[in-house]
């Protein structure tokens, strides 16, 4: 869900959702992580996708991790890294959305 929220795309949106996809997922197929996802979030997403359930974080562990991030409980190097990654993500998303909006406006102008 985190990756879908961050990427604003449905997983496997270019693949038919059928039995074959289910088998591929069971064999390890995972969606691509959105290229602008901060590393801390990408690492957490990857952990959640682990094929072995015992290796995935529990709901309690996820809550604790996200709550720690929310409350900025890091050592200094983690804070700098996290803030830098989030700023980079926000900047790239704004740029990406601006480019998409400009592209949409160009298409509208060409059809008028």
From TrEMBL:
Domain Serine-threonine/tyrosine-protein kinase catalytic: 4-66
SUPFAM superfamilies, A to Z: Protein kinase-like (PK-like) (SSF56112)
Protein name according to UniProt: Serine-threonine/tyrosine-protein kinase catalytic domain-containing protein
Molecular function per GO: protein kinase activity
InterPro entries on file: Kinase-like_dom_sf (IPR011009), Ser-Thr/Tyr_kinase_cat_dom (IPR001245)
Region (Disordered): 93-112
Residue ranges, compositional bias (Acidic residues): 103-112
